[in-house]
Amino acid sequence: MNTISNTSAALSVVNIGADLFADAIEAQGFAVTHVAWRPPAGDQHALMTLLADPRVNEANKIAVERMLSAHPVIVDVRPAHEVISALQKHKLLHAGPPIEWERMCGPMRGAVVGACIYEEWAKDEPEAVALADSGTLDFEPCHHYNAVGPMAGITSPSMPVFVVEDKTQGNQTFSTLNEGLGKVLRYGAFAPEVLERLSWMQEVLGPALGRAIRRLGGVDVRAIMSQALQMGDECHNRNKAATSLFVRQVGADLVETGRSSEETAAVLRFIAGNDHFHLNPSMAAAKAITLAGANVPHSSVVVTMARNGVDFGIRVSGLGDRWFVGPAQYIQGLYFAGFGQEDANPDIGDSAIAETSGVGAFAMAGAPAIVQFIGGSPADALRYTREMYDITVSSNPLFGLPSLDFQGVPTGIDIRQVCRLNMLPVINTGIAHRLPGVGQVGAGIVYPPMECFEKALSALAM
Predict the structure, then answer these.
(1) What φ, ψ does residue 442 adopt, rounded to 5°?
(2) From CA 51, how far away is CA 415, in angstroms rounded?
(3) Average pLDDT, the chain
(4) Alpha-carbon distance 242 to 364, whole Å?
(5) Contact call for residues 150 and 283 (beta carbons, < 8 A)
(6) What is the DSSP letter of 425?
(7) What is the reported pLDDT for 7?
(8) In terms of Cα–Cα distance, which of 261, 263, 252, 244 is closest to 206?
């Protein structure tokens, strides 16, 4: 729609909707004011019903208040099977919504093969594939056990995991330890050096961190994330500050509880050489925050966003454990030298729990340097954060952004507002190669499929 005003000799045009008309008028030398508007998404009757229902507003207030009060603290590092009792032999957890072996993407299949060899369920790739083909392996999402895993997210019984406890609600959440970059299991690699590193993490890194954290009495992840957000991190794709803060907290206790100076030095070198090390505890903390807001009847707040490289799924507070799924999207961003979109796997990983809790791309206004990694400009980083206030219930004062006068990050994605404004949550993320074991090939911005929110909207209105 165009509104044209002709006073004197000046012609001014206001364009609402498609840019096609505005572009044609601009080409003739006239100024055009664009009004961003899109028709609402989803079932309009369901949308109006939910927008008019006072129970939803009250439920959202409860859900978000619980999220804002969550206080995640790392209390230990333990083998996964010790803290997730269901995770026993021939059971693996994976990122994203439920998926069967036959539908898994390349990176996830490679990670399954690597986990089977690491756990000594198979001696090599053919034997691991045969095991998976036989139906012997049991696959479930990490989220079904309050766990999260980046990229393929494969979590097996022997892997050490961070144990994060919400000191307010009492819930515990879990995440594996970050392997670093390059050839790693989470991208589907299972070369000998990958398996050797996993064994070292099981035998040395995990126990060392566990001893130090227990002696320290816990590591306050909420405090680290709050400070890191004021130091240029957004706690998803940029974790330099958070990793440094973590090392400062545990360093002395690592030394004092270490079995040898060589072991302690190896642990510190490994963490210091991995700027993404704090991503995993940040993910577990984000899971604790969103878990606090889950299962509030009538609430339209999103408490899970996750991808398995094939499907993208969300879960909503008022709809319990039900998944609402659509196709995983391709990521738009910057590729490393020698790679392009033809190499990319669709969006994968549980790390979108960062955005679900209010950090990651939602906090990019405080991390302008991230655009050097994912593409865009510092102005884009500001815009992403500002837009997310329109589709969220509140903001988190504990996670203030200096560039926005310390306004808290937008928190509590509301499926009603996503559909009303036809505006999707933004996610920044790494790009995995479509083949197992190649690794990360870039990073960028991605949006969920709208159908996830449309399906959840209709379900909540029933």
Answers:
(1) 170, -170
(2) 10
(3) 94
(4) 15
(5) yes
(6) P
(7) 47
(8) 263
User: What fold is seen in the domain 71-283?
Assistant: Enterococcus faecalis V583 fold (3.90.1710)
Q: What is the pLDDT of residues 32-50, one digit of tens each?
A: 775 566 899 999 999 999 9
Share of the chain above pLDDT 70, in %: 94
Q: Which residue has the higher pLDDT, 240 or 375?
A: 240
State in Å, rounded, how far the first CA of the chain is from the last one: 34
**DSSP H or E run through 430:** strand 427-432
The pairing of beta strand 440-446 with beta strand 427-432? antiparallel
Q: Any idea what DSSP says for residue 139?
A: E
Q: Quick one: pLDDT at residue 36?
A: 63
- The burial class, CB within 10 Å (0-12 / 13-18 / 19+), for 135 is exposed
314 by Cβ neighbours in 10 Å (0-12 / 13-18 / 19+) ranks as buried
Residue 362 DSSP symbol? G
**Which residue(s) pair with 405 in the sheet?**
none
Percent of the chain predicted with pLDDT > 90: 89
Pairing label, strands 147-148, 172-176: parallel
Q: Tokens at residue 267, please?
A: 């642990």
Which residue's entry shows tokens 């144990």? 163
CA nearest 266: which of 277, 256, 254, 282?
254
- Nearest-angstrom CA–CA distance, 178 and 109: 19
The residue among 216, 342, 324, 201 whose CA lies nearest residue 267 is 201
Place of tokens 């012609």: 11
Name the nearest CA neighbour of 175 among 401, 310, 354.
354
Least trusted range by pLDDT, from 26-30, 41-45, 47-51, 185-189: 26-30
pLDDT in tens, 416-447: 999 999 999 999 999 999 999 898 999 999 99
Mean pLDDT along residues 388-399: 98
Domains of the chain, by residue range, sit at: 2-35, 44-67+294-461, 71-283
Collapsed DSSP state (helix, strand, coil) of residue 213: helix
Dihedral class, residue 386 (left if φ above 0, else alpha if ψ from -120 to 50, else beta): alpha
Q: How far apart are CA 42 and CA 188, in angstroms?
A: 36
- The domain made up of 44-67+294-461 has a fold known as v583 fold (3.90.1700)
Q: Are 240 and 373 in contact (CB under 8 A)?
A: no
More confident residue, 437 or 91: 91
Cβ(66)–Cβ(293) below 8 Å: yes
